Amino acid sequence: MNVLVINCGSSSLKYQLIDSESEAVLAKGLCERIGIDGRLVYQKTGLDKEVTDAAMPTHKQAIELVLQALVNDKTGAIGSLSEIDAVGHRVVHGGEKFAASTLLTPEVLKAIEECNDLAPLHNPANLIGIHACKELMPNVPMVGVFDTAFHQTMPRKAYLYGLPYEYYEKYKVRRYGFHGTSHSFVSKHVAEFLGLDYNKSKIIVAHLGNGASISAVLNGECVDTSMGLTPLEGLVMGTRSGDIDPAIMEFLAKKENLDIEGIMGILNKKSGVEGISGVSSDFRDLEEAYEKGVQGAIDACQVFCYRVAKYIGAYAAAMNGVDVIAFTAGIGENSPFVRKMVVEYLGYLGITLDEAANAERGDDKVISDAASKVKVCVIPTNEELAIARETVALVK
Ligand code: AMP
Questions:
Q1: Is the CB of 335 under 6 A from ligand 1?
Q2: In this structure, what are the phi and psi dihedrals at residue 25, rounded to the nearest 5 degrees?
Q3: What's the Rg (C-alpha) of the chain?
Q4: Rounded Cα–Cα distance for residues 213 and 226 (Å)
Q5: Distance in Å, CA 342 to ligand 1 centroid
Q6: Per-residue pLDDT tens for 126-155?
Q7: Is residue 147 among the annotated active site residues?
Q8: 283: Cβ below 6 Å to ligand 1?
Q9: Mean pLDDT throughout 241-264?
Q10: pLDDT in tens, 198-224
């Protein structure tokens, strides 16, 4: 079965065509600057990447171009559109309505729309992508896979904020968590990799990318995660602040003469390791500047790793122990420097690092040494494959 996986943003759209039997990627790419001018990136596996400037005033036109590329005579990955058996869509916010992936029926689309308030930047864009695909492929089954779904098992004590309860009742203000597809994929995969029983395990997943979050997975269920109502809570990220004293918002609004949009812009786009360092949001640049002794980069790396280590400690407490810590996403998979700095805080858990294994490149691997009481692993995440698997499970 061939599954087209779509991750649709407001002006961009990422896609992968996956053969669900072999789990091979047949082709992948993205559409950029939708509604502005338009650029299509397309790569059939095994061939060079093609980049074409192509007008795409709407998402529907962008998806049309993707479909044309997929069936192109010379570089297409499939002979005709009838070879696309299902489409899996990433949907950012499923609120409390979706604890699992679901077929996208008209009722489900309405329920997703009702979550737009909770993710005004993401959900409307996801829906535009879904509607465009439905128009172009009316007979192909479509599935929604939610970033929030895996975290719906969190207990009330983990998801209620210390706010008047009426705001939860009236507006569903609570902690939801994000990156759920990745936390689910990585926690399951690391248990399998280590030969653990997923349903009898204590796993902490550190998804450290430009956006970053941690989750505590107890006996196969998420019991806590660091992001909240929105993806702004928790860790210090590329440009997002993570946890701060909420009173800072009023303080800065007055000092800098900013309204709430101005403050939110600072917290989402000008903060995090970029804001602290003044160097970059990218750990490749930060590590280089750290080695050169740039104080801003030293502070940013230390603040980032210290926050990760504090959350790991909190989640070990939440689960009354931990068997495995899995690092994933851009930083977690590629930065021995960050992993080492985090693990150095964890000696009290009986964790000891195998420095050589940590420094090596490679996919699934254990980076703790034989004496370590907790296994520490690097597990590459694969959200597209996870979406394809969920899609197949629902349409088969
Ligand atoms: P993601 O959001 O998961 O795609 O992660 C992107 C981030 O991963 C980048 O902004 C970098 O901070 C980080 N990253 C990617 N490659 C490397 C690398 N080789 N070394 C350190 N950090 C990296």
A1: yes
A2: -85, 120
A3: 21
A4: 6
A5: 16
A6: 999 999 999 999 999 999 999 999 999 999
A7: yes
A8: yes
A9: 98
A10: 999 999 999 999 999 999 999 999 999
Contact 129 CB / ligand 1 (< 6 Å): no
Both structure tokens of 13: 């759209």
Residues 213/177, Cβ–Cβ less than 8 Å: yes
End-to-end Cα, the chain, rounded Å: 9
Which residues neighbour 335 within 8 Å (Cβ) at sequence distance 6 or greater? 208, 283, 287
283 and 237 in contact (C-beta within 8 Å)?
no
Q: What is the pLDDT of residues 261-309, one digit of tens each?
A: 999 999 999 999 999 999 999 999 999 999 999 999 999 999 999 999 9
Question: Tokens 């520490």 appear where?
Answer: 376
Q: Judge whether residue 362 has pLDDT over 90.
A: no
Q: Encoding tokens for residue 25? A: 């990627």
What are the residue ranges of helices labelled H in 232-328? 247-256, 260-269, 272-277, 283-291, 295-318
The Å distance, Cα 85 to ligand 1 centre, comes to 33
